[in-house]
Here is the input.
Amino acid sequence: MSGTELRNISFHGIGNPNGPEREPDEHRYWVTESAFLRVLDLCAAHRDTIRLSFDDGNASDAAIALPALQERGLTADFFPIADRLGTPGNLDEDTLRALAAAGMGIGTHGAAHRPWTHNNTADQHTELHDARARIATTIGIPVDTAACPFGAYNRKVLLSLRTAGYRTVFTSDARPAHSGSWLQPRYSVEAADTPESVRARMLAPRTASGRVLDRAVLMVKAWR
Here is the structure.
């Protein structure tokens, strides 16, 4: 691994989710606005070693996250689900463009929020190519970063992503990352998290044995 060690921290919905879960455990990753702001303050205090991202393209990305990031002088990467753009509770094309215009990174979380490990060839093209093209057309700039839905990947998925020309791929492996790596593990903030739990679970220094375990786990997952 090369580059500076950092922590990728990802958020999903902010506020109170409207309606039933769209997939199992979705509400586990929704945080209240007050909890989000407290965790964001902690992240701002460690801005040199933390990179932020937001998955799914919930409307709260623009309504709550964007102004909070701007107030703290922070940037983040946003990974919308292409098929949800313009649907109730989600970003529409105008708000996605507003995120890009504000200097935020825009990537893809696929078309329909399904695990890429289960796709056939046609579905994989829809997820990795068609979804990216729709998002890129919306914001008017190329899209070359992706976040794996549900954090699911294997060797075949990674090969498909490399072949498709993605510059960086984000997972949900809850491990430290390195700034120069193509594959970027992330920690996910959950509904019960506080600044204290984020500090303990995500920001605590890794021991030498912990680093060895991190490398082994990521290697095994990448070569399944």
User: Anything to note?
Assistant: Residues 7 and 50 are 5 Å apart (CA to CA). The radius of gyration is 17 Å. The chain has a mean pLDDT of 94.
